[in-house]
Amino acid sequence: MSKKIAVIPGDGIGPEVIAEGAPVLEQLGFELTHFGWGANKWLSEGIGLPPDALKNLSDFDAIYFGALGDPRIPDMAHGREILLGLRTGLDLYANMRPIQLLNNKLTCLKNKTCDDINFIIFRENTQDIYGGHGSASNKNTPQETTIDESRHTYAGVARIITQAFECAQKSVTLGHKSNAIKFGGALWQRVFNEIAPKYPKIKAKQLYIDTMAMEFVRAPEQFEIVVTSNLFGDILTDLGAGITGGLGLAASANIHPGRIGLFEPVHGSAPDIAGQNKANPMAAFLSAAMLLDFLKLFEPAKKLREAVKQAIERNICTPDLGGQKTTQEVGSFIRAQL
Ligand code: NAD
Ligand code: IPM
Ligand code: MN
After folding, report:
1. Most buried by CB count within 10 Å: which residue of 59, 142, 223, 302?
2. Per-residue buried b or exposed e for 154-193, using 16+ beta carbons within 10 Å of the residue's own CB
3. Ligand 1 interacting residues, C-beta cut-off 6 A
4. Any idea what the CATH number is for the domain that residue 83 is in?
């Protein structure tokens, strides 16, 4: 293995949390190469994702990503080009987002413990309404009409559902909206029904996405793996973060099995706290742990997760978790445990 990692810190708190997590990778002997893609480059040079970016990234084992988003670019045009450009350009079709309670004190749900909240959302990551296709006509008139195409292919749906079943031990639950979304909803349901029987030991369940949102809060213990489309997965994963201590702890892996992976916190650039040394770096550490797992470095990944749990246990936490420590203090504590 060449042991090369591309680091894209991004905007806002992205660079702050990545600065804490990146040294862990360096200490494990990875060579890190930083790419300054983000709002400043977009505003000064008009460049989001440089034309040779995808080709250059193919030299790396993995990508460690912070967050994008800047109040000066309200439509997030640069973020869509860079982040969605990487997800689709590298065909990172499986966005795996664990919803795992790391300490009983962190959940807002009554009578739920770490045993109850421990599942993974497999979010389809290359299709749906994220393609940027559509139109706006009669702009700025009462007749203004917008269309955003939500595109799903059989192959695209089949591969994420297959990946979900491959990773499951007990159950896979599909979140869909076939009662309202005529074509795409039917496709998801049909493909799920085709694939599920190939895994007779895995319980296959289906829930409408609105009911699923309620079940996350009412009875999260019923889930092991949830599979759903891109936009639903985006919304549900923030809900999942909400029941496990917030966005400061939510990690993710964007992968194409057998190829490169991009690892990033679920949160955005958090302009409300950027530059204040308040951002929780734990999601960035936990995303680094997912990166290590992806590269089969299971032992260091486990140690890193344990170190994060230690910090929570001992209340070495930023204000979002009720602590009084800074981003850097939490980062130093976690690295010192390793
Ligand atoms: P956000 O995730 O940036 O922040 C939501 C809330 O959670 C804020 O109150 C923020 O302070 C808090 N928060 C988030 N991460 C935190 C952390 N690590 N520690 C402590 N608190 C944290 O979402 P938003 O405010 O809706 O969006 C801000 C910008 O980020 C927008 O431009 C949005 O498009 C972008 N965004 C980017 C990504 C990404 O790059 N993957 C993800 C989500 C949002
Ligand atoms: C996420 C983010 C992105 C998404 C935005 C920034 C385009 O919310 O990674 O969850 O919707 O996928
Ligand atoms: Mn999101």
Report:
1. 223
2. eebbebbbbbbbebbeebbbbbbbbeebeebbebbbebbe
3. 13, 17, 67-69, 76, 79, 83, 247-248, 264, 267-273, 279-280, 283, 318, 320
4. 3.40.718.10
